[in-house]
Amino acid sequence: MVTSRWHHADNYSHFQHLYFVLTGIPGLEQKYYWMAFPLGAIYVVALFGNSIIISTIKSESSLRIPMYYFLCMLALADMGLALCTLPSMLGIFWFNYKSIAFDACLVQMYFIHTFSAIESGVLVAMAFDRGVAIWSPLRYSVILTNGVVCKTGLVILSRAVCVVFPVPFLIKRLPFYHSNILSHSFCLHQDVMHLACASTYVNSLYGLIAVIFTKGSDSLSILLSYVFILQTVMAIASREGQLKALNTCVSHICAVLIFYVPLIGVSVIHRFGKHLSPLTHVLMANAYLLVPPVLNPIVYTVKTKEIRRKIIQIFVQTKITAEG
To answer: pTM of the full predicted structure?
Structure first.
């Protein structure tokens, strides 16, 4: 049963649903109980891992350099992304609660797209950081001062907030009086937009412009940065020097792939995978939002000995407390 409310403003009237119904994983409804614990573990890893990165960078004086300040921003974006989807995902898989209020859906949509845009922007800043470190290591601290890092962070945040800000209002103006069943476990702009009972041309156009301005330009910037990095590395005389320079980029390359591969997969399936099962669409969307917050801390923990040491200290302290 679809519950709606009637709005009237400025001689324009339309229905809006009181709530939307979220979708878990099609065909696996009877197994949600068993999936609840692995899903909970995924969120624990995401939140714990990114918290460790932030606290380690804050406490270790050796990590107070631009590279790790940007990593801290990435961890904050990943935590934000995880916290955006956590209530609705756990509501479905732990309590079989699938309803989300219309306005709550718009809020969740806004923050999901905002944190995603922030993460994309931070990856560009990290690519620039690696480029400067390899191109001119002696001037690294002069070019990337704390002031420059702070201003870069503010630009990334402001861009994401401003670009995504119109999206909920563009959805709010649309009438909804047919289906209120979304195809994911959280609210995404395209998913909600497709349920509207009016032309969504403006929404589609603005969504395309926003994607080009954020993730499109970001991916191009990262690509160009690595072309420049490779040219600089090839100019290094020794093979050992080349490998050492490239090794400093491994973690960032992994973070870029972790973010953009699921994003490209979701985009391709959305455009060309109409014949695929709903399960494929849902799993790809879940991977797009859950994989980066989980894998990024693992990648940077493997590559950063200070973070590994911090985790070992926490486990040792926990064990001592438990035994005491």
So the answer is: 0.90
Residue among 130, 123, 151 at smallest CA distance from 219: 123
User: Could you count the other beta carbons within 10 Å of the beta carbon of residue 290?
Assistant: 20
What 3-state DSSP class applies to 132? helix
Q: How far is the C-alpha of 69 from the C-alpha of 73, rounded, in Å?
A: 6
Assign 7 to helix, strand or coil.
strand
Spatial neighbors of 25 by CB under 8 A, at least 6 apart, are 32, 35, 279, 282, 283
Q: How far is CA 320 from CA 220, 301, 313, in A?
A: 49, 23, 11
Is the torsion defined by CA of 112, 72, 153, 123 positive or negative? negative
**Mean per-residue pLDDT over the chain, rounded:** 87
**172-224, pLDDT tens digit by residue?**
988 888 888 888 889 999 889 988 888 999 999 999 999 999 999 999 999 99
